[in-house]
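FOLDING PROBLEM:
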Amino acid sequence: MSEDSFIYSNVARLCNCLGAKRNRSSIRRNQVADILVDLKKVVEEKLPDQDNIRHEGFLIASLAEILRCQIYETKQRDNNQWLDLLNRAKGITNGADRVIVISMVASCASGSGPFADGHWFEIIKRDIQSIPSDRDRIERYQWVAEIIEPFDKAKCRMLLKEAMQASNHFTDDGLMDKRQRMLDLAHNIDPALVDEMIAILDDDEASDGTKSLLKEHHRLLDARKEAATDVSRLCLQDHDLPDLIEIAIRNVSAMNAGRQIAQQPKVFMDLASKSKHFPFPLSYPVWLWIIESALKKSTQRMAQKSLPQLFDNICNAAEVAVSLLVRSGGGLRSSLLDTAESIVGPGGREQLFVRLRDWLVSHKDDQIFISDPYFGPDDLDVIKTVAEVSPEKRIVVLTSKEEVHRLTKGSSPEEVFREAWDEMCDGCPPQTDVFVIGYGSEGKHPIHDRWIVSESGGLRLGTSANSIGGMRLSEISEMNAVQAQEKRKREFIST
């Protein structure tokens, strides 16, 4: 592999994999450190690619990805390395490329170090405004906004508005697609931002039709988000065939990416009924969404009853559904957890979610209570699992003031938890109350045990949810109704 763009994209993917939460128990941190040292040597030998981009852009971006992983995963010190990468990025003579490279480094640094004062952002805006081509200038606004959105939504909003303003007096065959992509990103940040951006366009006869189309796109984005939470709330008569296909494609993509909670097949009944009148190729995305939701929604216990029946019914409807179910293993599945107690070893974090799903299916109580001194934004996958199986349940979480203060670093806990959910999932979270408690000056949690309980039973966790499947063995065991009620009344209510 010698082409610069391929080298960078693979470096970024590898660093993301090394830093992924699900992989932390599969590879030791000293091994990660060794891999990153070797990777840095390879990158510095291969880049710049003299047959393509000859400046240091791809090299700097690759080194930024590696440094991000080194600091986060191996606790390596910064030692002004971010400042060095920023200065090297400033040295790129091509202004259009310079803004992208500086943005990539800023994103990897998450706005820390030399990026904390915002001076870098003024450099980027000045460079973008000096780009002579309207098309290139709009594309750079949009590209930089996409890069920095994960760590600085306020600056992303500014760039999106400036991009829309710049598009006011620009005519291009692909302009509508560009504007719609801007609105897609704006809607992910705040649906109200979409209205603000549409209002930026001039009020004249030429733009009236454009505004109307963009408002239609806004309604489509709202409908997709609403369908992500509950597809039965989707008003089918308000959307034509292309809209419904677009909603299905976007939602099944988000669900397969782990950003959306699967829904019960019964909520798709109206959409399924309407889709039977679609041309066969156009009905495919709808049925893909339905079938994928059913597969993801089924726990191991439910699968023995629901999936074979679904499989038989779909076999009679279309061969494409048969192939999808066969590839997905649509048959009887044996339970991985046949005992009341489970020992979870390194790399076995998924067992927590398997066990939790099966437990939720067998307990129909209205409320779930979670006590974990170290519960934080990174543990919202537990909440997401509850929502996948029982979206109607109310969830109450007890966590420690000490841990929340450590994780939020002075920010509003509510905003931090909300942003963590939005990063993980497009749909709305279930009704969840997080109580931050603590005693003494350090705000320690008054309850040492970790558990998930309802009125009729519970799960006892040998360690915090975010540590299960780590390098040490941990236990998950069931509590009966008496034990669960004792925990809830004696420990939860007393706090």
Q: What stands out?
A: Residues 141 and 163 are 6 Å apart (CA to CA). Residues 4-197 form one domain.
